[in-house]
């Protein structure tokens, strides 16, 4: 395979992966927002993930802010996308929870339940 063919093949594989990722997102949220708006919403929420009780001055979005920043999304589409993305509303702001903070929180819950002899049910 020559360099040109190899480059074309790499572009094809890369484009195919992007298409598969887009399809996966759309399959997760069928009938919901199109990929471009879902990606925009994700970028907004990633600006300032929740890590503790801090409330920064920027990078936080209320419902109306998200509606304005993601034009064309209906209330139902936005609500569905927020559910699919596992976003949470904290003090009126929609955010992602930082993975490390979530792990720390879960470990704390498990530790406290263990030392107190509590049974955890995951049903």
Textual characterization of the structure:
The protein is mainly alpha-helical and 123 residues long. Helix content is 59%, strand content 5%. The chain is built from 5 helices and 2 strands; from the N terminus they run ααααββα. It has a two-stranded antiparallel ribbon. It is elongated. About 8% of the residues have low confidence.
Question: What proportion of the residues form beta strands (DSSP E)?
Answer: under 5%
- Average pLDDT confidence is 78
The rough form would be described as elongated
Which strand order do you get reading across the main beta sheet?
1-2
**Uncertain segments of ≥5 residues (pLDDT<50)?**
20-29
Distance between the termini: 54 Å
Could you tell me the radius of gyration in angstroms?
A: 20 Å
Compact summary:
With 123 residues, the chain is mainly α. The protein has helices at residues 3-28, 35-46, 63-69, 75-84, 99-115, and strands at 88-90, 93-95.
Properties at a glance:
123 residues; mainly alpha; two-stranded antiparallel sheet; 5 helices
